């Protein structure tokens, strides 16, 4: 990779059901060269060497041994949500890859929703709305 070339960031897709939000694309493109899973699979030999990071969105792309073995320059996997139980952290670490996540990203909104559900249940809100 050349000195001025941005590091490759593997994403499942842009937009769609399991793709990164269009609103995130401009920011990510300032720092990374975005590579979708489709692009990687279509040209694995060339693209696999460019990928230095993976951005997981909705647990996609799936991180397995085959993917990790195919990305020789992978340094970090960034998980977009809370929790990493969908990942084999020992497997990831065995490839020397670091993990990043946002453990408190939705703590407040989760607590707010929980309290709202408790109140709705206690006040029988759904029954009163029929």
UniProtKB/TrEMBL annotation:
Q: Which GO terms describe its cellular component?
A: cytosol
Q: Which InterPro entries match?
A: D-isomer_2-hydroxyacid_DH, D-isomer_2_OHA_DH_cat_dom
Q: Ion transport: is it a keyword of this entry? A: no
Q: Which UniProt keywords apply?
A: Oxidoreductase
Q: Which Gene Ontology MF annotations are present?
A: glyoxylate reductase (NADPH) activity; hydroxypyruvate reductase [NAD(P)H] activity; NAD binding
Q: Does the keyword RNA-binding apply?
A: no
Q: Which residues form the D-isomer specific 2-hydroxyacid dehydrogenase catalytic domain?
A: 24-113
- Highest rank taxon of the organism: Eukaryota
Which Pfam families does this UniProt record tie to the protein? 2-Hacid_dh
Name of the protein this chain belongs to: HPPR reductase
Specify the species: Pluvianellus socialis (Magellanic plover)
